[in-house]
Amino acid sequence: MLNLAENCSFGSLAENIENFDLNKFNCINEDLNEFFKQDAIKYSKSLLGKTYAFVLDTDKKTIVCMFTVSNDSLKADSLPNSRKKKVNKDIPYNKQRKSYPAVLIGRLGVCSKFSNNGVGTQLMDFIKAWFIDPLNKTGCRFIVVDSYNTDNAINYYLKNGFSFLFSSEGQEKEYIGKCETEALKTRMMYFDLLSLSV
User: The whole model's pTM is what?
Assistant: First the structure.
């Protein structure tokens, strides 16, 4: 099992791009591969999201995993009542408009030659710890993600403690204005960081 903390270095993709061989990174998902190889740096320069990578200490050109994060919010008022109550439950000083600080995981990928090795779970544990660290410069209560609506992706987030924002695909389609017969390509999910600091 590859241990990210012991065997890898962490850094910004934009700051270290000349050191990496992006062509060797393949996470089996063509959409993710294309984003990391062609769009991640543009996103960073446009201040839309920052991409970070773990690279092997023994080969600094080999990227083990990457993720992109940006600021977001969880808008509790637009959720179904049961989910709204759950999200609002432990929020002190409830605001009239209930929109709470969140970080969005825009993209997340593990290179296929390191998959099924616990790397994905280690990566998610790192992201969670990163945003509850006392040195974090901003408030962030939730992590949100639009997970690909595939069994592998959904199960990954469920295994890592995420919940669906909408209990059914029908509710989510109604929220985003999709026709009932249209397929959802993604599912909105969230993780409450307060659960780690209690």
Answer: 0.90
